[in-house]
């Protein structure tokens, strides 16, 4: 197997397992990481320096493990979810946070719509909540609404839906569900995806919103078309899948498994790269456990988070950057294994990714407006009345 990715550096700053990595759709020089040390770190990625990345700010405030974090499109804000049951929006240049309270158990997954006006959270309390950015919970999806019967471990907005917002969620109840959201925050179950033999831990959505990949403890990675919920192929790994991520400009799906990192060409259904940590070269103790992976927005860099608190960075070899595996065909097909092919278009080849990035962006809400009352305003949602109240924290 030809070497495709090479190690570029290591980001060290957390004292416990790194649980999530957030990248910006507009900037390649910053990322955020979340950890079980209850903190979030903002990193400045300096590819030409002695150190690959420098920790610029540590964000603290959560009272328990931080389970998920995303970065706003322009890199100015972060959204986090924690086992303390709370969400926070962070203003990265000051460290100020806006706090959302409403879940009755750990928050395991968070996301934000492209226009930055709708926030999503999923919890161990078996609900998904849709919030306005000023802290109002307009919709709660529960089992009574056709929702999940167990802890919701992961969900994501589906990008590039012409007719409105859609989300896809994965649960420990063994199902993946696709939801449509209208302008009034009414949520309607579109369909459920069934195919795994055990509970699912993670999912990923392709950059153009056409495909969903799901994986979990059964060791299978299933690819689905989000337009109709059809399963188009299965990638068998026989190892627990902790995290999945589509490459923005290649037909690659990266899987963080119990046995390391595997990168699949999902059109040809072959493994193009396997990554392992060279413990002897690092001369440090690491149990090798991989927990999450994230591609940079340009697809040139892969960030891999480990249980030892480090993020190891891999980059595409320079001579292969312009290559397109699968020959950059105008359309790509997946062999379904049933004697026919499923045409998925040029997904997610470089040309299509660039086309999506050049599309007119929605009018985005300025998250700085949330911090206009005070640099330390926190928003609370009263559980009993489900109404918003605003309190000021004491100045630090």
Automatic annotation (TrEMBL):
Instruction: Report the Pfam families cross-referenced here.
Output: WD40 (PF00400)
- Family annotation (PROSITE patterns): WD_REPEATS_1 (PS00678), WD_REPEATS_2 (PS50082), WD_REPEATS_REGION (PS50294)
Query: Where does each WD repeat begin and end?
Result: 11-53, 59-100, 100-134, 145-183, 193-234, 290-324
GO terms in the biological process aspect are: negative regulation of translational frameshifting; rescue of stalled ribosome
Per its UniProt record, what Gene3D superfamilies does this chain match?
Answer: YVTN repeat-like/Quinoprotein amine dehydrogenase
Which SMART domains does the protein's record reference? Answer: WD40
* Recorded GO MF terms: protein kinase C binding; ribosome binding; translation regulator activity
Report the coiled-coil segments.
Answer: none
Would you tell me the protein name for this molecule?
Uncharacterized protein
Mind naming one GO cellular-component term on file for this protein?
ribonucleoprotein complex
InterPro entries from the UniProt entry: RACK1-like (IPR045223), WD40/YVTN_repeat-like_dom_sf (IPR015943), WD40_PAC1 (IPR020472), WD40_repeat_CS (IPR019775), WD40_repeat_dom_sf (IPR036322), WD40_rpt (IPR001680)
Similarity remark: Belongs to the WD repeat G protein beta family. Ribosomal protein RACK1 subfamily.
State the UniProt keywords alphabetically: Repeat, Ribonucleoprotein, WD repeat
